[in-house]
Each structure stands twice: as structure tokens, then as C-alpha cells.
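Hi W., the manganese (II) ion complex you wanted:
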Amino acid sequence: MLADLEKRYQDLEDVIRGYNPSANFAQIRQAYEFARDNHGTQLRKDGSPFVTHPLAVARIVADELRLDSESIVAALLHDTIEDTGATHEQVAKMFSPTVADLVEGVSKLTRVHYTSKEEEQMENLRKMLLAMSKDIRVILVKIADRLHNMRTMEYQTPAKQKQKSFETMEIYAPIAHRLGMQKMKWELEDLSLKYLDPIGYQEIVSTLENNAAEYEAFMEEVDRQIGARLKESGIADAVVYGRTKHPYSIYRKMYTQNKRLDDVFDLFAFRVIVEEVADCYNVLGIIHDMYKPILGRFKDYIGTPKPNMYQSLHTTVLGDHGIPFEVQIRTHEMHEVAEYGIAAHWKYKNGGRGIGEESRYEWVRRLLENQEGADAEEYIHSLKVDMFADEVFVFTPQGDVINLPAGATPIDFAYYIHSAVGNSMVSAKVNGRIVQLTHRLQNGDVVEITTSKSAHGPSRDWLKIARSSNARSKIRQWFKREKRDENIVNGRQSFESELKRAMGVSLKEVLSDEGVLNTIKRLSYNNVDDMYAAIGYGGITSQKVVGRLREDIQRMIHQKQMERQEEEPVPEQPEVIRPVIPQRRSGEKGIIVEGLNNCLVKFSKCCAPVPGDPIEGFITRGYGVSIHRADCPNVLRDKEKPELAGRWLRVSWADKLEESYHTTIQIVARDRNNLLVDVSTAFSATKTRITSLNARPVTVDGFGVLDVGIEVEDGQQLKTVMNRLEQIPGVMKVTRPTG
Ligand code: MN
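Structure:
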């Protein structure tokens, strides 16, 4: 048995020597022995020593992909970390950190589990595997591993056969295709079909076998015809050969075109491989001259390469016996790329063609980082799958793949699932472990979110932590909706400090200027609170708002400076020292607002204060400071609200008052003749002007209510009027209404 293993190993070395004589054979042997010893007595399902599997995978990597020494070593070791006691450290120490990373990378891919999903999920899974591979060699070794497992699938249970075949068909064959590895793709597809639809597969294979002699004869004849004609035309060194198409490609045509096997259009494909691109088009002309081309079947993939950089001319023609066949025409170089895809890169390197050639492989370039100017070895080491560098792919606990921006956190994940999940998230687990919400998700992570009905909702920090615009906008929506009051307070603070910082003005000054307030309304906010709320939830920045108000604020500042100059003329020479006379305290409408001059003041309608009343000031939504009586029920109620705490101002009556103040009184009286005359007399006797009067009955037994709007000089006059009214016969009550 050991002798048999040694022979297999020697065969592997021979293959490697065939294309890379300077390979690191010492390390390759060491890897083989390490794998052999570590897998020990483990057996494969067919009873052979387990190490035959890594040997076979290494053989595929050498034979069919011709990869470098590190890839061979990684292929030999690919199951040691997963299936034996070997560790990353051990492999890194014995071989190299790169080899250890490759092996670890293959193991990680092995751990990804697949379930049947819709196409979009499958595409995400494929991208995830590619993104997880980081180094392209990881996915190449993994595909070789899968190919060997598929080749030896007959020893597995039928359930396992189906499952692995499904994965191969849905995941690995498309990846091989994407990397341009047509040959491996076909084999993977055929092997999968064998287990997924054994009857369909068998029908095709046996038909091909039964007619093999006939097909061979036909193909040889066509080969000969084409070969002879090319020679005549001076294209002597062309390689011509025919083949029947591979079973899965025939199967798919039967299936998608709903045809029986006999009706499948083209079973045969011929290849003409030439030296120069120009020859390709010459050959095409010759073929079309020899056989009748079928319309609509010509494709120029040389002029327009496929996304995976496949290049060829395709045409389908009718042969002598009315049998259609496809002809693919390409150069040797194109052929290598068609067969081996990205792996062809190594062939060119070893075939002595310069790295400069690579610049033509745009698609390879897209896969690579910092390729230009790098030398060959460095170049291979820098091979990375960076197609998905800006994305990360993670699993839900149900196995769905979620695609998030790179750097995404559990917060992004939660909001991707649903805004309700994000809003009620209390903690997150990644691969079964609780992580912080700032944790950056890695490809292949399984993410689980714990929610709670009593969760407080997102915190504002989350806006900084989340990477996806989806999560951020959902968090902002939440704040907009749930935290209006808090947003107003926060927005006001932010706006106020930005005003100070950028313009050097206070909030109160700004709010007292009608021009600025009008501009705020034009910014499509109904009032100042709406604007604060928008700033608070992050819908707009305070910097932006201040920027838009800049002109108004500058105008306001300028105006104030002008006013000040008018009020305080520059004293004439010689300067005399004047005695300090206490200035009369004055203010807008007879109200002093603490710390503010000239601010817009209005008297609240609910309690209509008059001079002498204890008062409070409140910054309103866009109309300056509203003055209330201190005992106004609205004041008493609103003072309880913590979110309004920042909006109360100390105000007082000035020495200099207006001529009169508007207020209202309410009189409840039993209606009688001349009641209104007596009431009017009371007002005129006290020189009180009536601005409005509204009478309405309240009860059936003759009581009525009079609401009277009046103008008084101050509280003293008001008190006098009210006393006078109370003395009128029939008047039950005189009050100042509030609320
Ligand atoms: Mn394996």
C-alpha cells in the first residue's frame, strides 16, 4: 500500500516537473508526508487511505491547472486543518504563512453550507465564496477538491450524491465558468447531471456511445476536409479536431428547447486553432466557402470577448450529409484561456511569454490587485479576488445569504432584515458568540439578532456605526418619528452652538428677526420647531441651515450695528465725563427679555397679561417670545415638560410701557333689561376702551356670559374696572379667562 502511495506521489512530481522543473520539490514532498502522517489511518468511502484524496487534488491542480508550488502544497494539505489535529500555526511554521492561509481558506469554504434557494441567493453564495477566497488560488484548489470528490461520488449515499451534485451544479460549475475554466466546468456539470438526473444522463451517454463509430467517422471526414483545404490555402500549422458536445450541454438544449435527443441541432463541435488572429478570420471565410453557414449562428467573440474573457469565432454550418456542426476558430492563446481561464495565467508565465501579455487580460486584471510593474512571483502572490472587495456576504441563522457593504456591522444586518428588527435590537451574535454592535462582519459569518419589545430603540451613535445607507436612513426615520421632542431640544442646541460658532450671534437674536424667521419658513419648515426636529434627527445639519440663513443673519447684524450707531452718537470733543444716570429700562412692547434686546414679543391670547401681572416668556415656534401670565394654566402645564425646559425665558415689565394693553374679561350675569347699559357705563367711567363684546346665553333660567375685549393701561386700571363691574346688580362673577 505504501509503495502504491509512493508511486502516486512520484507520478505527481513527474507531472509538476513537466511544466515547472524549478518547483519546490522538497517542500512538496514534506507536504505529502505531513498529510499522509496526519490523515493516518483515515479511509475514504471506497476503502483507500485518505491521503489518496489530497494527492489526487494536487494532481488536478498540477495536471489541469499547472499552478505554482504553494498551490500544490496547499492542495496536499487542504484537509489537514479541517480533518486532522493540524493547526494553522503548525502549517505556517512548517511551510509558510501563505500556505497556511491557503489551507485555512479552503477549509473555510468547506464549512459553508448550502441549501436550495432561488437564483438570487445562489448568486450571492457564489460571490460569497469568491469573496471569501481572497487569494484566487484558494478557490482554484477548492474547485479541484470538488472535482475529485465528484469523480469519486459513486461511493457516497444517494442523498449525499444528490446534495453534492446540486451544490456543484449551482455553485462550483458557475464559479469555474466565471473564472473562464471551461474544461473543469464541463466535467463538473456532467458529473452533477449523472446524479441529479441519472436517467436523462444515461440516455445521452448511451446514445453517444452507441453511435460512437458513426460519429467518429463523420468527424474524421470533416477534420480531413478542413485540414486539406487549410493546407491548400497556406494555413498549414492549424490544429483541427472534432468532438461531440458534452452531455450536460446536450441535456440543457433538450430541456430548454423541449427537444428529443434526435432533434438536438448540433451535437458536434470542431475546433480550428491557429497562430494569428488574422488567420482566424481567414479560416472563417474558408469554412463558409466549404459549407453552407446557418444564418444567425455566427458569433465574433474575438471582437467582443465574453465577460470571462473567452475569445473565439463561432459559426454553425451544414455538412455534406445535411448534418449541422459548430466550428470554433481561435488562436492557441485564446484556446488556453478558454480551457483554463484564470489558471492559464501560470501557463503563460512558465511558457516564457512576458508579463506584458497580461495587460490584454482585462478580466484577469479586474481580479488582481497592483498587478502593474510587479514581477512574476510577486504577481502570483498578489493574486486576489477583489471583485467583491466592497461587499461582505453573511448568513442569517436560516442560511440565507445577505449582501452588505464591506465594514458592515450587526446594525446594518438587523436593518437589512427589517426596520422593526433594527429598532428592537438589544444584542447580536456572530457565529454563536455575542459581539459588540461595532463588530465588523466577515464573509461567511452567521449573524443572529436578539430583539426585545422593551428595547429602547436605536441610539444616535448607531448612525456613525452603520455602514449601509439603508440602515442609516431607517435609524433616522425612527428618530424622526419617535423622538420629536428630543429632536427639537437636540436640534435647537446644535443650531444654537453652530450660530455662535459660525456667525457669533445668539439664538435669541436670530429668532427676534422677522427676516430670518421668514427664511426659515421658506426652507420648507412650518415653524422653528420643525427645523429643530429636522436637525435633531439628522435630516439636515445645523451647518447647512446656518449656511442658508447666512445672508439674513448678516443683514440682521448689519442693521443692529446701524441702529446702535444712531442711538449712541459719537460724543463730540472735548470729551466730558457725564454722571452715570440709571437708564430707563425699555423693551419691545414694554417687556424686558433677560439677556435680549429688541426681541420680537407678543402677548399670548390665552391669558392676555397686563402690566403688573407676574409674567413668563416662552420661545415660540417662529414668532419670537410669547408672554404669558405666570399663573396661566398653559404655563403651569408646559413647565412640567422637560423637553420644553430650554425654552423658558425670564421676562419683566419695563419702566417704559405701551399706552395700553389688550386683555379680556368675562362677566357672568343674570340677564335683565339695561344690563348692557350698566356694563357699558362701568367701562366708560373707568376710561376703558372696549374692543369686542360677545354675549351668549348659557342656561335656560336666564344667565348669560359676556366676553369683553378691552384695552387698559395696566393691572391697576383693570382691577378698578373689574371691581366696578362686580357691583352691578345681577352680575355674579367677573374673571380674566385663561387657556
Ligand atoms: Mn477535500
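Residues 347-386, 578-584 have pLDDT under 50 and may be disordered.

W.
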